[in-house]
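Two entries, shown back to back:
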Amino acid sequence: MKLRVLWVGKSRDPWVKDALSDYAGRIRRYSPLELIDIRDEKGAEAEEMRRRECERLEKQIPSGATLILLDERGEQLDSPGLAAFIGKQRDAGSSDLVFVIGGAYGFSDEFRRRGKLLALSRMTFTHQMVRVFLLEQIYRAFTILNGEPYHH
């Protein structure tokens, strides 16, 4: 199973880039991983920005991929729950598992209906931090699936 993580906007802060690189390297021990920046939209109304960003995201999603959208209204899973979800997708033979972090105004309603909604927390975090949190949780999920001591 190949993992793909899409996010709108660039990772700017050096500490974020370092953390993403670290966790991406860890995840790649278990599964192929692609991290993809999608250009953010500027200078339009929120609805139009969402629509344009979601069009760009759509182009990066392989046909037949399982799509997980990070959304504050999504389901909250604990770490073993995320591991179980990823393991189920892997065991079912899913070829592509795609996690998506939207832009400042989130996803269009149409795009939101396409995937499973997942919330990391009910709290609000910067998009930069969410990227790191998501990769850390994916790495943690793989260590749980492999019975490794990282999660305790």
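entry 2 starts here
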Amino acid sequence: MKITILSIGKMKEPYSGLSSVYEKRIKKGNNFLVKELVPKKKLRDEQQRDAENALILSELAKASSSSFIIALDKEGVFITSEKFAAHFEAWGNQSKELVFLIGGSMGLSKEILAKSHLKLSFSKMTFPHMLFRVMLEEQIYRALSILSNEPYHK
């Protein structure tokens, strides 16, 4: 199974070191890719979100029709790590690729959310999107560990 994260922004310190740890762990035995999408220039609010979302839509256009798209959104559903692992396995069985979408500070557009098969939330709280990417990578690694009956989850 292929696992892809499409994320707005370039990973920076202090998060990049921890992100690298989880990326290496996930890549063992998995086809894992993180695409950092960065608009060419900084714009104002709505224009910035539009530019960021255009980058995500461009990448989604390249995805296979059998890809399962998961948008990370504060209005999404909440699930436990164990349920995430079970869903992760089911999604992987029905799709060739899992694509996780992390928007910028202005969030994802309604158009992108409509193209998603699932809207997933980790919390009602707001997090920096780079920290959130690390949190997502950790949960992907945790799900893979649960599915492999490895002790990491305990």
